[in-house]
Amino acid sequence: MRVTNNMLINTMIYNLDNNLERINDYQNQMASGKKIDKPSDDPVLTSRVLKYRSDLSQLDMFEQNAEDARSWMDITESSVNDVIQTVQRIRELTVQASAGVYTVEEKKTIASEIEELRDHIIQDGNTSYAGRYVFSNFYTDEPLFNDDGTYNIPFTDQVVNQRSPILYEIAVGEEMDVNTSPVDVFGYVQTTDALYSDIPDGSAIGTAATKAVKSGTFDLNRDFSTGTNDDATIDIVVDGTTYTIQSPDLTSMIAGSANPHERGDVLSLFNGADDGGGNLLDSVADVYFDPSGALTIKSKAYGVGSNVNIAYNGDSGGGLTAADLQAAVGIAPGADVGTDITDPVIFDAAKTIDPAGFADPIIVQEYRDNTFVLTLNEESKEIQLDPADPLTSVADLRTAVQNAIDVAFPGPEVAVTVAGGPAPNEYLSFTTVNQPNDGDPPELQIETVQATESQLISDINQIITDLNNDESTAVLTTHIASIDVNFNRLLTAESDIGARNSRVELILNRIGENNLTYTSLMSEAQDADMAEVIMHYQNAQNVYRASLSTGAQTIQPTLIDFIR
After folding, report:
1. 560: exposed, middle or buried (C-beta count within 10 Å: 0-12, 13-18, 19+)?
2. What whole-number distance in Å separates Cα of residue 350 and Cα of residue 427?
3. What percent of the chain has pLDDT over 90?
4. Mean pLDDT, the chain, as a whole number?
5. Omega into 344 within 30° of 0, i.e. cis?
6. How far apart are CA 18 and CA 344, in angstroms?
7. 347 closest CA partner among 193, 156, 201
């Protein structure tokens, strides 16, 4: 084989480039401290490094969540501990006052101090963390207490019994509930007020209504030219009203349309179908091409009254036939009927209403003062009766409740009726009006307010009242037992918070250990061994110099070399 000078030069340049590239790789490793400069350097190792980075990023998120959860519970624990210390002081003052050695003025002085301590407890109950009130259950944007110590949030069954969690994700598939229910800390006084006695609790979901739909494959290549005397029509019947597309309309669409026809022209043709009185099809139906390309006509109405039909009428003069029109439009004739709501949401109260109660001014006032929470399709509103509505009978109560609901949910979307037998077996029935949103099943939930007072604040208020009234030692002594009940409840709540806080500490320790492990693994996978890289770099430089020297000796001499 003949080896030319060009072959020698090309081989030398190729080897020099390889050596330089090797030097460049080692320089990049020394500069970046990483083994991998680009994924193609080592696809398997790159995949492993990316997985470690993803794991570390997830751990950072879990650590942040756990820190947030710990901060929430630290604030909660601090507030509960403060309440415990305050209640302990109130107990001491109550024991002193019940000793029977204090004058009326001294008891009033003690009452004044207890009032200040009560206000401090109210302040603790309204503790917030990062703008969220820690004791308000899921009403975190609302303070727990009003200034007078009554509950500011509606104490419904969900608050009292279900204890809605506030969750932080702190590990894969693991969540921490940081919520401390106000019931567990402050207790509640069960109400016996009028609305609680007469309004039912519960929730239900009805059956979704549907709309009538007709669809078919429109032939965009069809020739609709039929002549000036053509009387062919397409009749679209929606909810009993006929909207007609005349033959000249078809012809005019074709006149300005390319072949194949534009979908926009087809939609304009159908949306412009007229009922003869100037009303167009697009006012009662949606016309569109679905994702599969089918021309679709959908009634805008729900229920059994919702129907769509289509009919084709041929040209009596021999132009387009009904079969031609049907083949072109692609929608089969015949009615399509929507489905009505077969199971509307209905609440028939188990609680009957005593008509005699409306003769009692106190009960009537309770109706006006109390509230209940109504949730319709996931939208919750607090319902309170209008003081201007008369309340002299069950019928008046129905009207007042209906008016209040209509104010909260304009529509109306919920109908209130009086059902049951004759008095005293009458009750209020709540039913959703059959107007679901976008065909979704309607959902109705009613929650009555079970409490407006904290047991702790109520007991403290009674102590203050009895001290100001100079009650006997026997009466004051009874309050010590009630304070002890509240004190024990607070201790239980503090223990629960402490246990959860300890768990968060353990999780944070575990996250820290996992973070260290994954960081070590990622470092092992991607970080360069600098001593080894420097050694390889020095070796690559020696090889490069040797290749330069060898190349210089190998290349044939030229005439230039003989010029002296």
Report:
1. exposed
2. 8
3. 35
4. 85
5. no
6. 79
7. 201
Radius of gyration of the chain (CA): 41
What pLDDT shows up at residue 49? 75
Supply angle C-alpha 119, 125, 128, rounded to 5.
125
- Number of CB atoms found within 10 A of residue 174's CB: 10
Count other C-beta atoms under 10 Å from residue 42's C-beta. 16
pLDDT value at 516 more than 50? yes
pLDDT 10s digits, 375-392: 988 888 889 999 999 999
- Across 30-155, the runs of DSSP E, i.e. the strands, are 128-129, 132-133, 150-155
Which bin fits 240, alpha (ψ -120 to 50), beta or left (φ > 0)?
left
| pLDDT for res 461 | 95
Query: Which residue from 403, 364, 408, 446 is spatially nearest to 154, judged by alpha carbons?
Result: 446
- Where residue 434 falls among pLDDT bands split at 50, 70, 90? low
CA 148 to chain centre: 33
Question: Is residue 33 within 8 Å of 526, Cβ to Cβ?
Answer: no
Measured CA angle at 76 (ends 73, 79), to 5 deg = 150
Among candidates 236, 237, 436, which has minimal Cα distance to 339?
436
Tokens coding 252: 């005019």
- Rounded distance between C-alpha atoms, residue 432 and residue 414, angstroms: 4
With the C-alpha atoms ordered 20, 22, 25, 26, is the resulting torsion angle positive or negative? negative
Q: Closest Cα partner for 340 from 436, 444, 215? A: 436
Q: Read off the pLDDT band of 228 (50, 70, 90).
A: very low
State if pTM tops 0.85: no
Q: What is the pLDDT of residue 79?
A: 95
Contacts of 326 (CB under 8 A, 6+ apart): 312, 332, 333
Per-residue model confidence as pLDDT tens digits over 238-285:
988 999 988 777 766 554 445 677 888 889 889 999 998 989 999 999
pLDDT digits (tens, 9 = 90+) for 1-49: 676 777 777 877 888 788 787 787 777 777 777 777 666 667 777 777 7
First-residue to last-residue Cα distance in the chain:
35
> What residues contact 140, with CB distance under 8 A and at least 6 apart?
132, 133, 134, 166
Q: Is 458 helix (H, G, I), strand (E, B) or coil?
A: helix
- Token pair 């239900």: residue: 204
Parallel, antiparallel or unpaired: strands 307-313 and 379-384:
unpaired
Residue 394 token pair: 């069950």
Token representation of residue 329: 């439009």
Q: What is the token pair recorded at 396?
A: 């008046």
- Whether a cis peptide bond, with omega within 30° of 0, leads into 333 is no
C-alpha to C-alpha distance for 493 and 207, rounded to whole angstroms: 42
SS3 560: helix
